[in-house]
# Entry
Amino acid sequence: MNDRAGRLLSCATALALSLGACRSAETDIPLEALELPPDQQLIGGDHDGPPVVAGAVGPARFVDALLEDFDSVHARGLMAFVDGFYRAPANDGYEAVLDRLAADLRDAGFDSEPGLELYFLERPLEGGVWGDRTRWHEVQAWTPLSARVAVLRDGEPDHFVHRFEGPLDYDRTMLPVNAPSGQAEGTVAFDLADLKPGQVLVIEAQPRPDTIRRAFASGAVAVLSSYLEPYNVDPTGAERHVDAIQYRRLPYGSPLPVCMISPRAYQTIESACLAKPSTRVRVEAEVRFDERPLRTLVAIVRGNDRPDEAFTIASHVQEPGANDNATGVVGLLESACSLARLIRDGRIERPSRSLVFLWGDEYRQTTTWLEQGELTTVGGLSSDMTGASHEQTGAICLLERMPDPGALRSLPPDEHTPWGAVEVREDMLHPNGMAVIARCALADVAAAVGGWRTGEHPYESGSDHDMLASRGLPAALIWHFTDFTYHTSIDRLDMVDHEELRRTAVAILASALCVADPRPTDLDRYLRTLDQERRVRVEAAREAGDERIEQLWREWCEGARHWLRWECLRIPESER
# Structure
């Protein structure tokens, strides 16, 4: 049988199977009651979401090889390197990490072997100054050098509640991105209403621009804030959060020094002032601003027969945490290098479409890529916060879907994370099967490693998948939450589970490969899994008495069914 005849037979077989799956989907008979072959039983008992139909196709085609080849030893070393910097857009740490990633990718064959490309995209650091409502605040690259906050009491040695002298120090997040250099000393006010000229304002609330502006107008010499989010409270009861310093960003051009402090430091300052109202606080901060372009690192595995179509995976470098986002950066780097090796050794075929790996500044890296115009992007994933230790942080791996009816009304088994829902309109719904594929990948990794607790939730926004979803492209975020260390100084290496990082990275790449290289034989499994989701969603809507949500879920699943057929049967866009 020649290749063309074989492909036609495979397509015909898959189409027949898909039609059978569609007929079963229109009944109210639970899929569990149907006689499924042994390799198509339901799996995903460790997943908080709709179940998955088992099979050796879809992401299962890649999972074993990816798990085996993932270089955990190299990943650990790279994690320590990336975690060693306070990474802000285009600053010293950001640049050092991008250069290290590029060197590792070159060692893996990118930029030297056929079909493996590597280059940087550049754009200006653009944004508004203080008072503007521009989304991007970085006008120049900002690198923190050192900072100190000391409590001064007459006749006693200076008591430093926080300080850092280098990028590796734990207190490094005490300076918000874009905070200025400066020195200030004064007595303390704990409320704007009580603030007198020459005082340091110490608050538990967020240091919002308006608060800083009002403090400056009232004569404050510095502002300190111990603010934490409700989800930053240690869920174990051990109160580790009382020593956490929140990571924040300020608009460029703050008129006075601003520092973040821990709740414990706030209590220390408050107690000292109660005991001696003459207590003073000294703030010292040294930063450097540089004129630099904002770089995005691009690695491409060129597709075999559709090289001008691309599926992207983005992982942002900026932000100083280990989980957010050294884990995403490292997991994606290891995935790219692993895929290059597996293709070179013939263990995985080169995908039909190109796979594009991005490292840079969150949101702007994906926007920069979408504006490049060289390749047509067909969808993407965000690799963000991928290795949190459940034991240390309480977080599990989550699939955040793009806008679907669950984002209009969350019904069981869906539940929003403490990050919270965002406004979604019906015209933002663009049905596709990306969540079905990613859900299968999570289940397949769980099956391969002997169990893995995962979950999912409706769209909440907050990472690079937003840039794709806003254009109607299939997208998803795979991340970990609720991580109580999120955006704090205690998000460091001791909060990372390296096996969790490997599992999550493999699930992400397996999902991406399924869209980059869909096969007719994948279709039946996807449609049966989609049928499971349809039943779960429709039953939940019926129980809630919400006919509109029921109808929207039916329409979504029908659209996703068509999308999966188009993808797996490789129907050109012009014929859909």
User: Anything to note?
Assistant: Residues 3-25 form the longest helix (23 residues). The chain has 15 helices and 18 strands. Residues 1-35 have pLDDT under 50 and may be disordered.
